[in-house]
Every structure is written in C-alpha cells, then in structure tokens.
User: What shape does this take?
Amino acid sequence: MIFFNCKKFCLLLLTLVSAELSAINLQIKNPEFINDKVYVDISWENSWNYNDTKPPYNYDAVWVFMKYKNSDGIWGHLCISSDSTLHYLSYNSMKISTVDDEMGVFVKRRSGEGTNNFRLGLSFCSTFAQDIYELQVFGIEMVYIPEEAFYVGDGESNNHLHKWPAGGPYYVDSELPIELGEVNNSMQTTGNDLLSGQIGENYPKGFNAFYAMKYEINQWQYTDFLNTLTFEQQLSRVSNNPESPKSSSAYVPDNSFHFRNNIVIKQSGDENLSKPAVYEVRNNSFPFYDGKHRSANFLSWYDVLAYLDWSGLRPMTELEFEKICRGPKVPVPLEFAWGTPFHISAIDPILDATIYEHVSQTGTITAGILSHGYDSPQGPLRNGFSSFLAQNRVQAAASYYGVMEMSGNVWEVAVGLRSDALQFIGSHGNGILSNTGNTTQSDWPVEKGGYIYRGGGWNSGVLPGFRDASVSDRFYDNWNLSGRRNTSGGRGVRSAH
Assistant: This one.
C-alpha cells in the first residue's frame, strides 16, 4: 500500500508519504500523477503463468485497487477504467485484465515464471470523484483457479460431503443447480446437521473460473484496512475501543498474551471529535520484529466480510474451498491441502516475526509442513512460511493451484450450504461499508448459519479419525460462532467472469 498527498483534485504531482510491502513479497512504490494517470512501480517474486503450457494451467496475478480521501477526511473507493487501452505497462511481458464493475484491475505476467518488476499506469473511470486530497494504492496477490470439474468430499473426514445415496465424492461438473438432501444423485453430509433444499444456479459452486487470494489476510493488510475507516466503523472491526491508549492491542487486554497478533494503536482515536484511531503492526519490545506478514487472527466472519467488501472481492464458498485445495484430482482420504494425508508439524520459528520467518522443520516429498497443534507457536505464522527453500508443491504445503496455507495456520471462513447461505449469488464488494463498518452486500450471508469454518488453525489436532485441517473436514459445520477467535482469519476470492 502507498499513500499520495493530493492538492487541487490531484492536478499537481503526487507526493509519496510511505511505500511499504503490503503482502509477503509484493512491493508498490514510486508513485507519480501524470496526464490523468496514477503511475506506480510494482514487483513481486515467485510469479508464474502456465495457462497454456502445463498443469495446473493457471497463473498468479495482483489485484490492484485504489482508495481516496476527500476534504472531509472520509475514505472512498476510486474506480479504475474498464478500458484496458487507457492503462500503461512498461513491459509487454505483463498484461492488464480489467473488470466490468471498475473496482480494480488484475496484472499478470504473460508466460513463464520468476520475479515481476514493472511500471503500471492506471486511468480513473469516467465517473471518478473530484474531491480527492489523498490516494492510496493497494495490491493483493491472487491465484487464478481455472474453469474445470472437481470433487468434494473424501469419504472419511468428519461430516464430509458426499453423493447420496451411493456415497463417495460428489462430482461438480457445471454451475447448474445441485439438489441437497436425500433425493437421488443429491449432495448430502455425513454429519448430524443434514442438508436440504437446492444450491441455485447463481450460487458459486467452483466450476467456473475465479481468483483466490494467494495468502490469508495478513496483519499488515488488515491494519491498512482499519486505517481507512471512520471511528464508528472501527468500533465494529476491533475488540478494544479505538480510544484506548497508544500501544494498546486492537484485540486483547493489556498485559495479556497476544497469540502472535501485533496490531496495536499508534495514535488513539477520539469519538467526540469523530477522529479514528491510527493502527500499526508493532512489537513494542522489538520493533524490527513486528510480525506484520503473519496471517491475521482474531477475525470474525463479519470482519472478513467487511474487508472483502472494502477491497472489491467476495467470500468463497465451501465448494470453492475444496476446489482451491484439490483441483481436479480424485480425493485422497484425510488429505491436507498439499494432496497427501501426511504432515510435519511446524514447531520452531526461525527469524521469527520478520519477513523471512519460517520454521526449522522442512517438508518432504510426501509430507507438507502444517501450522497446528499444541506444540506449535501459540499463534499464526508468516504468509508463505512453508515455502521457504521448498522444491515442490508438497514441500511448500501448497494447494494444487499454488494457494498457500489452506490447511492450518488460521481457520478459513466460507459461505456454507445451509439454508441461511443459499441466497448467496457471489456478488463482489463495492468498496462501501455501512456507517457501522459492516458489509452492504445484500446476498452475503450474515446470519450465524450462513458460514462454516474450514481448513483448521494453529491449534488444530491431527489424530486418528480426527483432523480438522484436512480438505474435506466439516467438523464445525453447525458451529454458530459469531465472535472473534485467536485461531480464525480468512481470505477472499473474485469471480473471473
């Protein structure tokens, strides 16, 4: 994320206030405003495009979007033109993909793999706001999940999905409606909370192409989000009052164990003055070791929805969760996101709380590293920690498509399959939250029965017959938790159509 100071409706040269990483290896810096375009340098490592060459026939990209502050100090979403010819790229090796709702753009490499480093110029849409005094440019690393059929359910995990009445994995080969319950060829669960009704045609089932966040929302990204909210909105998105003293945690009482969450108040807010707090990710004892690249924990379902609405993304469904993990492969009983049922526990952090944080344990050709259990660090690890020096998917603990930490670290929250969730049609966030900081998307399920926890967290157990970090495990399918947990976070997706 970067800041610009703007004067005279951004007609003067933009001045950089700060330029820092907003994800594990994504950098956005050196902004300029020239001839009605915002220019920035963007770079990120470990990029690929195998869309036409080899499995999994996909690519990674960065979702770029902008926010602006008006003269009243309120932040809004700045639309970016859907006409790709109006934008600029310094190298033909990169490509811009625009979106119809003009919430942002995707930028990807055209082929091959390696580090991307280029200059991007973005044009506003024709209806952009004129009252602009400050701009921020944000980027989120994403992975393209191609259109293809896939399976859900593995035949053994707790409360797994299956085909009724024959049993076995359910094959999703289109976006046509799916019957739930106990009718021929329907989808059902082995749990006590049986499914009923119909998954409608517009509910995202995972067959169509979409983009998924490469990493879980990290603490730096969530802090950037908090710092664009009003005081009233912040009240809903943190546990502790924004008026709390400087250096107070956003989530836990003073002198309490933080569970590796270092989001704190940099400048206290003032409700009487409608002045929001300013947050930062900071270790007060060792400022260099701030842990800003760790996955954000203490996020409720409502926190995740607000972040995704704000960023122009949407929540994933639990069917999409399984596709992200497994791809088109036939399910392996009790498998983790890297495709095997074997794991090595992440126990001993190295370079803890830095951008290079990883663990002393290493994956093998059959077992990925899993952040879980009671011997692990008591909190989440860095985004992508398991890929350090990895040579293949299993060693990196990556999903079939290259998405990280789909098993363990922090729980993922997804739109479920109960009746409270079936109205979901996959609308994207519009960048606008309510006055109280909640999502404004009417089809997004906000009732307790509308979402489900998947993928396990840093304290999940791996026992015979119980492993809630496995791909198909739905142990908490009827768990109606509405608050924040030190093990819960999330990520978003965006439909590719």
